[in-house]
Task: structure prediction
Amino acid sequence: MSDGELLSIGEVINLLRDDFPDVSVSKIRFLESQGLIDPRRSPSGYRQFDQHDIARLRFILRQQRDHFLPLKVIKSKLTVWERGEDEAEESPDARAGLAAEAEPLTEDDILKRSNLTRDELRELIEAGLIEAIPGTEVFPPEARIIASEARRLFEHGLEPRHLRAIRLAADREADLLRQLVAPLLKARNAEARAAAREVLESCVGSVQAMHRALLSAQLRQQRAP
Result:
């Protein structure tokens, strides 16, 4: 991309897709609606992205993919990024913001944030896609993401029983990482547990990125003539 060149939203997606296979028109529009990006508009109203917009998008998508940060925290980090400090450490305030958003959810919370029906949510729970925190009637914060993405898949004709394959794949990946840190956890001391957490945080992004890349490669082969 040359200096001064402006790209349409479709061209931006094609440019980013190799690194971020799940990027989409709706995702970019959502980021704009949340105030994280602000592309210019053509006289006819179409979004136009310059080099700075694309670099900003890459930073946002990388923070989501590699660090699982909520948009509120990413938005606070953008000020640091604008100063050229892309890899700056998270501030205490950013960490506090992340912790504040990681609160358990009730069924009503999930329904409100995902637009699922109560029957659809119950089906996801029965299929094991969404599970309550052991010993409670509330759900981990990840349940919102699972519910929202499930709703999108339902719109394309999939059903909860079809999504069990995704749960099984996640279980296998989690088992692999648990085996990786098992020797550290056997030590049963605070230092070893802290080391285990660091290993998991370091590896989980790589596993997810590989999963997305492999899935994209498989689908690309199916589209090939």
